TrEMBL record:
Gene Ontology process terms (BP): ubiquitin-dependent protein catabolic process
Signal peptide as annotated in the record: none
GO cellular component, one term: Cul4A-RING E3 ubiquitin ligase complex
Organism (species): Chelydra serpentina (Snapping turtle)
One function term, GO molecular function aspect: phosphatase binding
Name the UniProt record assigns to this protein: Transient receptor potential cation channel subfamily C member 4 associated protein
Positions of transmembrane segments: none
UniProt cross-references to InterPro entries, sorted A to Z: TRPC4AP
Region (Disordered): 312-332
UniProt lineage: Eukaryota, Metazoa, Chordata, Craniata, Vertebrata
Pfam families: DUF3689
Length: 757
């Protein structure tokens, strides 16, 4: 120890003390990194620590940790540990508060000597074994301020699982939950929920507030790690990953574990649909907020709530003739209500997210059955006006430094999460009709009867006791707010996606007419043409929705022509389509399929619309179809295919399948060859298309869901899809329908392997 603590030659006085302190710090950090030599403060003598403490400005932390280490063994005086922790805790809390309230960049560039010293002298390792409330607070504050601590804790799987057992203690629940959430956020490997001791009994012991907070933790354990950027990952990379991971992922296993907990989904549905008036009393809520106040990421939320309450009080006092005391009354009555709303919004956010992930998982049908039985949809319908899509007050609840329209606002986030849930719920599932009420279901039946077509089986089989009640169902309410949405609103994308998911699957004339009668087509065209929407995401969602709304529906094309009634409007519409075919190709596919069907019909009404509709006349020109086909193939390549742009490949295939039906496939291929030569790139398009179709075979032939989607969206059997691709890929250069027949040997480049680069 002399080598560690003794002053070197000429090292007397303050400078020597500082050098000695620096030497100790350097040796400690080296020992912790290498596992050799000096690894914790307890190995240093008390005398040396006292000598160095004042000059090094350690604030007595190493000495306190040494005492803590001595008293943290079995049969030690635990009360002594607690008193030591109470001395340490304020030293760390002040720094953590500064960290989250200062400018973040400045905070990151500054140093936090107390938390750094605490970690360096082994504080994190000492208290990890006997966690109590003060320990949790210290660990949390150290994780916030000192880089690497959270990751080190995350590597200790036994410690992470142990933390879950502490959640049974109501006094430390919030602190434990917050610490677990932070640790899981940096953990390299997702934990297995089934490894948590007595998970089912733990969850059943939670009250509703605790369950909602527990959902924050569950979100990390049931979501695939790359979900957020799913469209950006190439299909080549995804396919390669799927070959490596033959079994279910950890997230999927965790989803199954949750669904096996008795009553779990039912409790989530009750939480998601309960009204603010049904929540716990104000006193319990305020007590919980007081607990949270010490947890720094919620301090700003409380500040925001206080500001709202004061504004409400001032507004009430100004509006009243009796200003003497009404403000105080308002503060007493309004503050708890504002807090309760915020409270409930935050809870519902977490719960809806978990339900949404479960709806998209492997057990989708099981989850669908349960949330239908527990009346999630009617419950959300009853909350729509008063909570989910409530009107913003003059002082909407937002976090410090944000505004009402910021995506971080709880109000905004709740709306988006609600729309994502509707999208997942409706997508390719017959339970989508639960979004309507009984009168609206009767309207669907009447539409089918008037059109002399059979009712959709799913409409007939819908359990009327599980549908929405009230004057309007959830889908109709959504349409109403959608049409009122400002042009720059961030909700437009999610609203369009949610409504489009209701139409996905086998095309239903009655579903389309239900929405057409409510002015949806005119609203979409107004957004695309009159407001000349510039957002690519919103435009794509509108084009996709328009495609589903108009497909095979002659009435929709008639309405389209009535709205787009000038050449100027039609040109703006075409410009929007042509500005990005990746975004508009699903609409191009819809028009192509619809035109093909209409041309085969002998109905007078259809013939009239065919002759008058600008859109159908435009697509009926061979040159236009060939132009779309050429560009669709040209904008995608195997190495850049994603879930977002693979639809361009399928749209090009639809155009060629319809040509094959009319024995025009050779003509289309020959025209592509001529276009290549015109562009001075012989072989470029057809070689690329050949590679794309080879990938198509690899990607789709083992995916039942994808093939079903292709059939439903095109009304072309998957067998015909497969046959067409095989014919196009035939190696026989004498075949008039084989791509190779149209590539000169000098430009042939079809055997290249495509691998993820």
């Amino acid at each position: 120890m002399a080598a560690v603590g003794g002053p070197g030659p000429g090292g007397g006085g303050r400078r020597g003390a500082r050098r000695g302190a620096a030497n100790i710090l350097a040796q400690l950090r080296h020992g912790q990194l290498s596992g050799r030599g000096l690894t914790r403060g307890a190995q240093i003598t008390e005398a040396l620590l006292k000598e160095r403490d004042k000059q090094a400005k350690w604030n007595g932390i190493p000495l306190l940790l040494q005492k803590l280490y001595e008293n943290s063994h079995p049969n030690s005086d635990f009360s002594q540990c607690q008193s030591i922790l109470k001395e340490i805790s304020p030293l760390l809390s002040m720094e953590a508060m500064a960290f989250v309230t200062e400018d973040r960049k400045a905070a990151q560039e500054s140093t936090f000597p107390n938390t750094y010293t605490f970690d360096l002298f082994g504080g994190v390792d000492v208290i990890s074994d006997d966690l109590i409330k003060d320990c949790l607070s210290i660990l949390y504050n150290t994780c916030i301020c000192t880089e690497g601590v959270t990751k080190r804790l995350a590597e200790r799987n036994d410690f992470v699982l142990f933390l879950f057992t502490l959640m049974t203690n109501k006094k430390t629940f919030l602190q434990t939950a917050t610490l677990i959430e932070d640790i899981l956020g940096v953990k390299k490997e997702m934990i297995q929920l089934e490894d948590i001791p007595n998970l089912a009994s733990l969850v059943s012991s939670f009250d509703q507030q605790q369950l909602a907070n527990f959902c924050r933790i569950l979100a990390v354990t049931i979501s695939e790690l790359d979900t957020g950027s799913d469209d950006k990952h190439t299909l080549l990379a995804k396919n390669a990953q799927q070959k490596k991971n033959l079994g279910p992922s950890r997230a999927e296993v965790n989803q199954a574990t949750l669904l096996n907990i008795p009553g779990f989904v039912e409790r989530l549905c009750k939480l998601a649909t309960r009204k603010v008036s049904e929540t716990t009393g104000t006193s319990n809520f305020l007590q919980e907020l007081e607990e949270w106040y010490t947890w720094l990421d919620n301090a700003l939320v409380l500040d925001a709530l206080m500001r709202v309450a004061n504004e409400e009080a001032e507004q009430s006092s100004t509006e009243s003739s009796d200003e003497s005391g009404l403000a105080n009354t308002s503060t007493r009555t309004q503050l708890p209500h504002s807090m309760k709303i915020m409270h409930e919004i935050m809870y519902k956010l977490e719960v809806l997210y978990v339900l949404c992930v479960l709806l998209m998982g492997r057990q989708r049908n099981q989850v669908h059955k349960m949330i239908a039985e527990f009346k999630l949809i009617p419950g959300l319908n009853n909350l729509f006006d008063k909570l989910i899509w409530r009107k913003h007050s003059a002082s909407a609840l937002v976090l410090h430094g944000h505004n009402q329209n910021c995506d971080c606002s709880p109000d905004i986030t709740l709306k988006i999460q609600f729309l994502r849930l509707l999208q997942s719920f409706s997508d390719h599932h017959e339970n989508k009709y639960l979004l309507l009420n009984s009168q609206e279901l009767n309207e669907l039946s009447a539409i089918s009867l008037k059109a002399n077509i059979p009712e959709v089986d799913a409409v007939v089989n819908t359990d009327r006791s599980l549908v929405c009640d009230g004057k309007r169902g959830l889908l109709t309410r959504l349409l109403q707010v959608m049409k009122k949405e400002p042009a720059e609103s961030s909700f437009r994308f999610w609203q369009a996606r949610a409504v489009e998911s209701f139409l996905r699957g086998a095309t239903s004339y009655a579903d389309q007419m239900f929405l057409l009668k409510r002015g949806l087509l005119e609203h979409i065209l107004y957004c695309i043409v009159d407001s000349e929407c510039k957002s690519r995401d919103v435009l794509q969602s509108y084009f996709d929705l328009l495609g589903e709304l108009m497909k095979f529906n002659i009435d929709a094309f008639k309405r389209f022509n009535k709205y787009i009634n000038t050449d100027e409007k039609f040109q703006i519409f075409l410009n929007q389509i042509n500005s990005s075919l990746v975004d508009s190709n699903m609409l191009v596919r819809c028009i192509t399929l619809s035109l093909d069907r209409f041309e085969s019909q002998s109905d007078i009404k259809v013939a009239e619309v065919l002759s008058e509709c600008r859109l159908l006349s435009y697509m009926s020109q061979m040159s236009m179809r060939m132009s779309f086909l050429f560009r669709l193939i040209n904008i995608i390549h195997v190495q850049t295919l994603t879930q977002e742009n693979v639809s361009c490949l399928n749209t090009s295939l639809v155009i060629l399948m319809l040509a094959r039906r009319k024995d025009k496939l050779p003509f289309y291929l020959h025209t592509l060859q001529e276009m290549e030569y015109t562009e001075k790139y012989p072989g470029f398009i057809l070689n690329n298309f050949h590679s794309l179709l080879r990938f198509w075979q690899q990607h789709y032939l083992n995916k039942d869901k994808d093939s079903t989607c292709l059939e439903n969206s095109s009304c072309i059997s998957f067998t015909y899809w497969k046959e067409t691709v095989s014919i196009l890929l035939s190696p026989d250069r004498t075949s008039p329908c084989a791509i190779v027949s149209y590539i000169d040997e000098a430009y042939m480049d079809i055997d290249r392997d495509f691998t993820e680069e």
